[in-house]
Amino acid sequence: MAATGTETPHQGAAPAEELRVVRVRHWGRLVAAVAAAVALAGLLGSVARNRNLRWDIVGDNLFRDFVFEGLFTTVWLTAGAMTLAVVLGVLLAVMRLSDNLVLKVISGLFVWFFRGTPLLVQIIFWGFAAALYPVVMIGVPFTDVTFFSAPTNSVLTPGLAALLALALHEAAYASEIVRAGIQSVDTGQTEAAHSLGMRPTKTMRRIVLPQAMRVITPPMGNETINMLKMTALVSVINAHDLMSNIQAVYAANYQVIPLLVVASAWYLAMVSALSVPQAWLERRFGRGTADGGQAGVFQRMFTGGGSPVPVGRPADHPDTVEEARS
């Protein structure tokens, strides 16, 4: 019978065989994972059974008053230093991007100095600033007119010295992070805002910085976590933070390792708590992007963030092969 012309080319043909995707087995990865798990279990078991660790002392000191007093100082030092550092960092970044040569040079010198000297040196310097200036005076430069005068040690307490050292050191890094975020925004956004009559300050506040936050938030969150841990360095000037109080106690009872375990446990707890708002901020400012800023809390905590790995793989991915079902 002649063809009618209405049949499709495959009409009446046998259905195509279904393809089955089979994942390639990586036996080397499996062996390495098992070996790593066994080594980790052995290490944890060795630490747990070690009598020199004195878990009873760890438990007795985990919730003592001196620990909570040190935690309070550590938290407010972190919050205060990061707040000052971010405010100063934004100002320095704007100065660095300014067309004014004087502002650009001042910002560059600030970053060069405070990023180029160790934080420990800066903390000790502020802690012993009275050796350089015994008296703090505020007045008219190059005259004898003075509005305020007081001994440096009465004004610059160990806590304030620690706050200034941490904030100024961090401001140098924060300014570079903010500068990179501002430069990541397309210049057309600024030009469009100016064409609508927006002033440069309003353009920066309403247009550029909100878009730059997607780039600024991840490294700034990491810097906040790093700041929390760097507060331990202020123990050299006895700023009564967590590490200072821990050192004072183990200097008296000589139980160094158990008390260091107490400090480590609390630092881990605080870092884990900070990972939650960081992940939320990254998701918020990452909306509308390719990855959607969907770095989860546990991914942020254990892997340092980034976009999650897709669950599925395409059929032509190098880790998969196709086999026709026979």
UniProtKB/TrEMBL annotation:
Keywords: Amino-acid transport, Cell membrane, Membrane, Transmembrane, Transmembrane helix, Transport. This is Amino acid ABC transporter permease. Coiled coil: none annotated. Residues 71-278 form the ABC transmembrane type-1 domain. Gene3D superfamilies: MetI-like (1.10.3720.10). The chain crosses the membrane at residues 30-48, 68-94, 155-174, 256-277. CDD domains: TM_PBP2 (cd06261). Pfam families: BPD_transp_1. It is found in: Cell membrane. Residues 304-326 are annotated as: Disordered. The keyword Signal does not apply. It is a multi-pass membrane protein. Belongs to the binding-protein-dependent transport system permease family. The keyword Magnesium does not apply. InterPro entries: AA_ABC_transptr_permease_3TM, ArtM/GltK/GlnP/TcyL/YhdX-like, MetI-like, MetI-like_sf. Residues 314-326 have a biased composition (Basic and acidic residues).
